[in-house]
Amino acid sequence: MMKTKVLYMIGLMACMALSFVSCAGREPQTVCFFGSSVCRGVGADSLNGYASLVRQNFPEGWEYINISVDGNNTFDLFARLEKDFAGLDVQYVVLGISLGNEGLHEVGERAVLSYRENMPRLIRMLQDKGYYVIVVNNYTRGDFNEVDYQDLCTVNLEVQQWDVTTINVCGTLDNGKGRWAEGYWNGQDIYHPNQRGHEAMASAFPPSLWEALQEGKKLPEFVSTEGDDNGVHRLSFVPEPGLQSYTLSYESNDTVFTQVYAAAQSRKSFYVNGSLHKQLDGYSESISSFVVNGTNLHQLFFYRAAMTPLEVEALAQGKFLRSSLELYCPLLQADVTNYAQTTNGIVANEQNK
């Protein structure tokens, strides 16, 4: 009897120890938003901007800090990094700045060069301090012209391929020409979106991103499916809540099909192998679930933002783009694993035996 009791106590203590380790691995974290005025919430009602909205999806107990400063660019962030992070117990840093404050409209290529040089360096500095870094991609402005927009799209395509978690906010409120879409700014403040614009930007963050990070889910890498006849002809999934715009891309019988829904532009576009096939203007979509039919379906990508034609073409050419990626399912040998940094998944409904 005594031996049984001792074994029971040992087992109980072991279970308690495992429980403690499990809880310790999921202890509350702190996310710090580090950027400029849009990241601070300027333009939104009572500064309830995209950063403040995103924290509503934090796991229970997580903390929110916003140390963004109006007008900041990469040089300003360098200058105040050491001082502003001193004494902060932070695990995640969201970098929320854009080419606008870098001087894109005023100095053009000089702004692009400073962003390209400074952002990777800033990311490394934060990572060296032990922070997990998330980058908010460049967004539009009320005075950008065609050249500004071309530069912005080119840089954003590069950011999509960085080895860091990135968020494509531009793809939620861009009017297709580099300016705020109608209704997403107040018509006078060229520098900031309004409340609706901030809500659109927040929708580009996958809601379960934070839970996936808490579980230690790594940045996704490309998985080749060349030559794999998996027999998957039908799949389905339900996007996570709050979705406004999206890009859905998949390969069927060696052809890449891409759908882009830009809610801010009231437009849905269909691409085949990166080339525009059909476009619906004045289009509004109520998003609930998706069903994909095809032959030997592979390389399913689902993003919480509308891609530009440049990005769609790059994706069809095999470039691995990560910004606002909610689902990435290579479907190698019909494996339905989602490699994106979310907890969402797909269902393969039909498969040849």
Description:
- With 353 residues, the protein is α/β, with parallel strands linked by helices.
- The protein folds into two domains: 27-205, SGNH hydrolase (Rossmann fold, 3-Layer(aba) Sandwich), CATH 3.40.50.1110; 232-351, Sandwich (Jelly Rolls).
- Helix content is 33%, strand content 22%.
- It has twelve helices and 14 strands.
- The strands form three sheets. Strands 10-9-8-7-12-13 form a six-stranded antiparallel sheet. It has a five-stranded parallel sheet with strand order 2-1-3-4-5.
- A hairpin with a 2-residue loop joins strand 7 (246-252) and strand 8.
- Helix 4 runs parallel beside helix 7 (109-128).
- The termini are far apart.
- The relative contact order is 0.12.
